[in-house]
Structures are given as structure tokens and as C-alpha cells.
Amino acid sequence: MMTIVATVLSGLLWLGGGGLHPIAGLTWLAPVPLLVLSLRVRPVVALSASAVAWVIGQAGVLGYYLGTLHLPVVAVAGVVLLGAGLASGTVLLARGLLLRGRTVTAVLAVPSLWVLGEYAASLLLPHGAWWSLAYTQASVRPVIQVTALAGVWGVTYLLIAAPIALASRRRAGLACLLALAALVGGWSLIRPTPGPSPLSPAVGLVALPQADDGLPLSEASGQELLGRYVPRVSGLAARGARVVVLPEKTFGVTPATLPRLVDAFRPVTSAGVRVVVGAVLRQGDTASNVALVLGAGVTTYTKQHLIPGLEDWLTPGRTDLVVDGHLGVAICKDLDFPGLVRRYRAQGATVMLVPALDFGSDGWLHSRMALVRGVESGLTVVRAANTGRLTVSDPTGRVRGEATTELLVPAFRAAVATPYSRLGDWFAWLALPLLLLALNSQFRRRERGVVPAARPTGTPGRPAASSVNREA
Q1: Which of 115, 201, 266, 395 has its CA 20 to 30 A from that of 227?
Q2: Residues in domain CN hydrolase (predicted)?
Q3: What's domain 203-416's architecture?
């Protein structure tokens, strides 16, 4: 019964603390029941309970993976198994160290297993850092500041270290927890805030309902949609917007119909306003997902990271685009890749202009993933998503504006230097020696005369074997 209760409780906590609308506090508590259970049962029971609990926690996103993203069943199974493996491995490794009395090692080194798992997935899978526990904390600004120092890997580390410390129920574990809390709080206090950095432009965002993606400007439906966007963009410009961003794949254009789009927005662009339009550009037999930056001329950015399966028919781009020396341009899924945003920051970008297209239910989560990219590299993110949210976030993770149809945000300090933007994934690499330390402590021979602090006394419902029976 104890095993069942712990498994279900952890599973429900992961269910509420993860998914598309996570409750941040539950994520910290989810592993605790499993870790406490693991100290009282055999390893195989702890492993099984951890795997089952993780699967329960994934129940809320399976429909999103399969029905919305149309991911292959094999891919979904792989993602679920990856999480189950990390959960089980973390619990078993922490169990072994805690039973040996090595509490500090358990708290400070075991989380490296999950960090390395997430980092490896970001390098090996085509989705970048899309899969991470860290995004569950996107609305908790003191915690998310850690990404400016260590990337999402630092937040994931904390999310695993804290429950291990709580489950240990020892002074050393609580001391580690207090030390980590002090470090997070200290970093949040001393982290530089945007000072004399350049101002962002006043930005406008607009997303109007449309029947389909990439409505061709050669057809009445595309022309009608363009007719609805023009007064909206003009109105935002009249209210002070110097840059206006439209969603991803708003129009379908060809070299022959592109002048129609340029002419429609010429009254605005001739006044010095930049208009960024997401479109599908067809040239001969190829199609690209592009952001058209309209100003004195037309500058084109092509989406570099396409969604596997859904965008296989498109040709990816290879080149970054920085406009006016400080306006970086990217499209939707590009922001799932921290390295791309760091690269833009190194090129002088202080603001990212991002046409996007969400799937309705994932609007909050994907907009907050973009927010985290901004905190990591210390820049402003302007993201206009159809069937999602229009958001503007500053370099400290504060949401400056959010809407679903139209948004205007005045200028503010746009950028700040961050260690992560300069050093990259140093913390993920630090996790490797930490994991080796944990494994060495787990598997090396016990020193003579040292008695483990605790050990399982038997499986639930079955008394422990007597010493006579063990000797026999």
C-alpha cells in the first residue's frame, strides 16, 4: 500500500507540475514520495514505482504529442521512456547514497544525472532544449534568473536537488538545501539589471484569425486577410510603434505577389516603421518558412529549425539575420535552441523579433520557453503567435505585455550581459564530473568498520529476515 500511495502521489504531482500549464510548486515536490519510499523498499520496487509515476505524470501531454503535434508513436514512447529512465535512475542513485550516509553527495551530485539526460536530448534530438523541467518555473522570476548563469540546466539541477535534500531528512541535506537557496537568492539580488543598455523600440504585435496557414496573396482569401491587417498595423504605428510583428505563415507569397505585400504596407514603412511578416515563400519547386522584414526594402529570414513531420515540405535556412545592428529575427521553433539565441547576442542583437504559430493549448508554455531564452542571453523577446499569445518579455523575465489579438508595448531597456551568453553550456559539462563522483561514491567498496546509516528492512507487508536467516 505504501508503494502504491507513493507512486500515485508522485505521478499526480508530476501531472500537475508539468505539461502545458504547470503549477510550479508541485514540480519541486513530485520526486519526494518516491525518494522517501526508496529508502524502505528494494531497488527493483523503487525503480518500478519511479517509472510508473513518471508515466502517470505524462498522461496530460500524450494527447498533445499524438493528436496536436502528430508525433510518431515511436517518438512519443522514446520521450516518455527517457523521462522514466531519468526518474528511475535519479531515485536509485540517490537511494544508494542516502543509505550509505553520503547525504551531501546525494544532494549535490545526483541531480547531474537528470541534467546530462536533458542536455544529451537537446543535442541528439531535433527539438533542441524543448524538453526540460526548467520551463515549469518560467513564471517564478527569482528561480528563472538562474538560467542567466547556468542555462535551463541550472534550474533542472535545483528541481532535483531540493527533493533529495527534503527526502534525506538529515541536517546535512537541509544544510545543502539552505545553501542552494542562498545561492539562488544571492544571484537574483546581484545579477545586473538593464542599465545604460540600448532601448528597445516601441513594438506592436497583431494576430488575426484566419482559415488556414499561408493564405496566398494571389487568391481572394489572402487579399481579404491583407486588407484586415493593414489598418491594424497602421493603427499601431499611429500610436507609436516603431516595429510591428505579425505571426508565422500569415501569407503565401511568390516573387510575383511579394510586391503586393510591400505596397500594402508602404504608407507605414515609408514613415520609418519596420513591419515583420511571417509568410510561406514559394519559388519554383521549393517553399520556405520566412520572416519578411519590410522597410526601405525587403530583407528575408528563413526559419532554420523546422518541426519534424509537420514541416518536412519546407526548406530550412542556414543564416541568421540582424536588422539595424540590434534587431535579431527568428521564427517560432528557432527559439527552442539556446545556441541560436546566444549566437544572435554575440552579433549584437538586443531584441529578438519572432513571428510564431502555436497550437492553441501550448500557447502559454511556448511563449514562456521564449521568455527563458531571453533571460539566458539577456535580451528582449517580441513574439507574435497566431492561435497562441502575443508576448513581450524583458531580459529579466518580466512580461511587459501579453494579449491574443493586438498589443502595443512602449520602449524599455532591452538587454543585459549574462554569463550564460558568454560561457554557454558550462554547467551541463560540469554535470559530468559530478555524476562520476556520485557513481564512484555509490559503487566503491565500503571502508572497513563503516556501517550504513539505514537499509531497507523488508518489502511492504513482509517482515525483514532475521540475522540468523541472513547468515544461513
Answers
A1: 201
A2: 204-418
A3: 4-Layer Sandwich (3.60)
